[in-house]
Amino acid sequence: MPPAHTLRSAAALADAGLIAPERLPALERVAAQYAVAITADMAALIEPANEADPIARQFLPQVAELISTPGEDPDPIGDLTHSPVGGIVHRYPDRVLLKPTHTCAVYCRFCFRREMVGPEGLKTLSPDELDAAFAYVAAHPEIWEVIITGGDPLVLSPRRIRDLGERLAKIDHVKVVRFHTRIPAVDPAAITAEMVEALKASGKAVYVALHANHARELTPAARAACGRIVDAGIPMVSQTVLLAGINDDADTLAALMRAFVETRIKPYYLHHHDHAPGTSHLRTGLAEGQALMRAMRGAVSGLAQPTYILDIPGGHGKVPVGPVYLDGPVVEDPQGGIHAYPPGKAV
């Protein structure tokens, strides 16, 4: 029987049969450094006997997490460098991140904020800190979009989510509100009618970005939860991290992107894995990601094509790093054929 509650320790994982008892001492060292949490919905998907199980690789701690490699950084994309007040990251002129909480329903083993989330990480904003964050947004008329992230903001109650929307509704220059979350997939029962209603912000365009990395995460319950959001008039987009042994082959990636589209979620970003500490065992090379995007182009519907993105280390921003097909006077088709462009010129 799958667990009926979230598993929050290596011992709990062993008791649930998800890790072998002899691995417990080593994995307790990992859990002491990086938070562990797996919801019942995700635990039920794990195949314990399969060492390559893509759900297990995302959520079960590994001894490899204690190994740091050159270039890894506790703040790999420079959140803290661009944080003018607590809970705000202002990296791009027209948008900010608002991080009201640093708690998650699940703790991903590859998380680029793994040093900031969990019981030992940054805390949920206090009322005074939240006031200061909203004051910052209100004082900067260039801010067109507020991206509510964390942590996972949907671990908050509908009342607190509604409060965020009501406060943003009073800031005229904010036109778009976006929630980044895993909750519809990892805890679909939390997407109640009350939660969906709370996501709306009067006078604002609201979007929900779902983070999922494998098609198996989009269970019937997850798809129904997303349906409740979309049916309420809230568009959804996707975020995925390219991960070794999880989704780094064309068929797996295509299946995930098609599953998003079937669920009425527009594939948005495929993130190249950031250099967070202890995550090298899950990182691919850029060339591998570019090859995957080439394999997807032409073989998979345009609706199912994400943008392959690199977040430049040090907080310098995101850039698309997909394959290039145009080279001077020639363009390459998805099958590798070379053609003159503009037409009529010699190749």
Tell me briefly what this model is.
The chain has helices spanning 10-15, 24-33, 40-43, 54-59, 127-138, 158-169, 183-186, 193-199, 220-231, 250-262, 286-296; strands spanning 88-92, 95-98, 145-148, 176-181, 205-211, 236-241, 265-271, 307-312, 317-320, 326-327, 330-332, 338-340. By secondary structure, the protein is α/β, with parallel strands linked by helices.
How many E strands? 12
Q: What structural class is derived from the secondary structure elements? A: alpha/beta
How many helices? The count is: 11
Low-confidence stretches: none
* Rg value: 21 Å
Average pLDDT figure:
94
- Amino-to-carboxy terminus distance: 63 Å
Note the run of SSEs as H and E: HHHHEEHEHEHHEHEHEHEEEEE
Most strands sheet: 9 strands, mixed
Overall morphology = globular
* Order of the strands making up the biggest sheet: 1-2-3-4-5-6-7-8-9
Helical content band: 25-40%
Strand content: 15-25%
SSE topology:
Elements lengths: L9 H6 L8 H10 L6 H4 L10 H6 L28 E5 L2 E4 L28 H12 L6 E4 L9 H12 L6 E6 L1 H4 L6 H7 L5 E7 L8 H12 L4 E6 L8 H13 L2 E7 L14 H11 L10 E6 L4 E4 L5 E2 L2 E3 L5 E3 L7
Parallel strand pairs: 2-3, 3-4, 4-5, 5-6, 6-7, 7-8
Antiparallel strand pairs: 1-2, 8-9, 10-11, 11-12
Helix pairs in contact: 6-8
